[in-house]
Amino acid sequence: MSAHFHASLKVPASSNSSIGTVPARQGWLALTLAVPSRLWREVQLRRATRNLEGMDDRMLGDIGIGRADIEVVVRNGRHVLPYL
To answer: With contact defined as beta carbons under 8 Å apart, do 71 and 49 qualify?
Structure first.
């Protein structure tokens, strides 16, 4: 097995395909794609929070959550509430 460094990536490259080295470019690509995904998820969570905060207490009670629980329910689901 011979290993050498690829000049442009500065990461070890190997002729043995069983060694799973990830080139630096793939790491940056994953990070670049993850940021917009996380931002979009945050937009969705905030929209859901606003929608629930716009409901009256009776409507929230009908779906089984209290006003104080809105943020927890939106981010984690109702299963985390101790009284359900």
So the answer is: yes
Rounded-to-5 percentages of helix, strand, coil across the chain: 60, 5, 35
Q: Does a structural domain hold residue 17?
A: no
In sequence order, what are the residues at sequence separation of 6 or more whose Cβ sits closer than 8 angstroms to the Cβ of residue 14? Answer: 1, 2, 3, 21
pLDDT tens-digit series, residues 11-47: 555 555 445 555 666 788 888 888 888 999 999 999 9
What DSSP character marks residue 51? H
| Count: domains in the chain | 1
Q: Which domain holds residue 27?
A: 23-80
Residue 53 and residue 70 in contact, taking contact as beta carbons nearer than 8 Å: yes
Cα gap 40→4, rounded to integer Å: 40
The answer as to whether 60 is a domain residue is yes
pTM over the 0.85 mark: no
